[in-house]
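@here heads up, posting the sequence + SMILES for the NAP run so it's all in one place. Ping me if the SMILES looks off, I pulled it from an old spreadsheet.
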Amino acid sequence: MLLTSTWGEGEMPDNAATFWSQLNQNGTSPSLAGLRYSVLALGDLNYGDTFCQAGRMIDARLAELGAERVTDRVDCDVDFDLPARQWSSVTFAALNGSKATTPSPSTEEESTEFSKENPFPAALIANVRLNRAESSKDTRHIALSLSGSGLDYEVGDALGVFVQNHPAVVDDIIARHGFDPDAVVTLPDGAESPLRAALIGHYDCRKHYGITPSNSVPLSDWMESLRKLQPRLYSIASSLKSHPEEVHLCVSAVRYEVDGIQHQGVASTFLADRLKNGETTGVFVHKAAHFRLPSDPATPIIMVGPGTGIAPFRSFLEERQAIGASGRNWLFFGDQRRHWDYLYGEELDAWQQDGFLTRLDLAFSRDQAEKIYVQTRMIEQGAELWSWLEDGAHFYVCGDASRMAKDVDAALHQIIEQHGHRSADAAKEYVAILKKSKRYARDVY
Ligand SMILES: Cc1cc2nc3c(=O)[nH]c(=O)nc-3n(C[C@H](O)[C@H](O)[C@H](O)COP(=O)(O)OP(=O)(O)OC[C@H]3O[C@@H](n4cnc5c(N)ncnc54)[C@H](O)[C@@H]3O)c2cc1C
Ligand SMILES: NC(=O)c1ccc[n+]([C@@H]2O[C@H](COP(=O)([O-])OP(=O)(O)OC[C@H]3O[C@@H](n4cnc5c(N)ncnc54)[C@H](OP(=O)(O)O)[C@@H]3O)[C@@H](O)[C@H]2O)c1
Ligand SMILES: Cc1cc2nc3c(=O)[nH]c(=O)nc-3n(C[C@H](O)[C@H](O)[C@H](O)COP(=O)(O)O)c2cc1C
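bot reply: prediction finished. Complex structure tokens:
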């Protein structure tokens, strides 16, 4: 039984990369005749053509190599709980020759603990803009209270946050369609609600904003086309040891213009602009078992986190300081301009000055004519970075997936080739071993 999510643009997640390359070795791929399998693919329909692509590729490749598919692949959108449990029950029975049982409700649903199904209403206790007023960016330090929740998180985890659409966006959509804001509609959980409240709190309306419908659509048909509003994930930026009963986030407010219309990211601007101090929003802890500090506190760590990618590294540093970890800490941080965008600059400078942050390399991309990025600094410090890796350092990357994480990965390969005196293939092998031994971990989005 194989389960995989899809990452990047239709790519394998890091923990499936070695498996996938073994299935595709030129000319030496194994025959899998006699192997019985089934694939559960996790994905998100918002990704369009690459929906569940990793699962689809694994499913097709195993069949191509002669394995026998015992039950059809199931492709899951973000609400995967029920289809996943149905697939598991049917596939387990098919593999064992037993009868499939009807999946019981998940234990999470029965539990009284706070979870995605039963989010904790966390009150906003701080919302601080981390960029100076002159900056084109708007990144917020958000602190939420977990008091009374019993919620426990580990550094490296993300926080799931339930959010609301902007009321003005909803009003615009209702008016353009000529709907009655008080018309009674059905919510995703089957309950009934007036249309306006349903759209603010429960449905993803983004694709309808600022667009005049070409012909009138009955409300019931239109409602059918809507997807449920999903919670968003944010990397946790604090350690419970430094901030008991609190969770901190570093959130970049998404604002952009298309065809003269101003758009706002639903969740990031809900947190930045609309949630007021003392008001609550539902949260849950999203475990990130792949993104953990080394178990031995003496192990050195290298962290690469430009922009909001700094978030988990603030939590790592707080945690390592709180437990008195003796391992060396090296951070690469970057953003557009030092004077405007040095997120958590005072904390980082203080950690560097007292020697806890062994090395701090900064890359401000727009303070000079040519772009300087975190990978520029990595390459400049390549010999030292190589020696840390050889000393057993863990290497972490967080932040933008589409460009930064790929370029940092390329820089890492370049450093291993140059300073480790290895061929391109041997550098790839070195990186594969780092990943396999959980010494190269990424939290990118
Ligand atoms: C594991 C994980 C950790 C994360 N950690 C953090 C974090 O620490 N901090 C953080 O800020 N975010 C983080 N994110 C991202 C976060 O979850 C949200 O995706 C982000 O805040 C945007 O959500 P939103 O609801 O504000 O925007 P949405 O309403 O979802 O809008 C975003 C969409 O708008 C469109 N868009 C955005 N910019 C433009 C543009 N310039 N032109 C045209 N279209 C555009 C794109 O389609 C984009 O997908 C993380 C994501 C994951 C998966
Ligand atoms: N879809 C996209 O194209 C895109 C791109 C970036 C970020 N985002 C998203 O925007 C949100 C907020 O971003 P953020 O505030 O965390 O910061 P960010 O936009 O990632 O920027 C942080 C720093 O990284 C630099 N940068 C740009 N391209 C880079 C690259 N290829 N390699 C290394 N560094 C690079 C930026 O420089 P410059 O700005 O000067 O180039 C800036 O100095 C995140 O959700 C992120 O995923 C989306
Ligand atoms: C950076 C990033 C890229 C993603 N790319 C895709 C994609 O191309 N296709 C898709 O179907 N899902 C994509 N997803 C959605 C994930 O596959 C989905 O959320 C999955 O449930 C994640 O499971 P995990 O958190 O256990 O890794 C992407 C998610 C992220 C954060």
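MO: The pocket of NAP (ligand 2) is lined by residues 137, 139, 252, 306-309, 334-336, 365-366, 373-375, 399-400, 402-404, 407, 445 (CB under 6 Å).
MO: One more: Residues 81-96 form the longest helix (16 residues).
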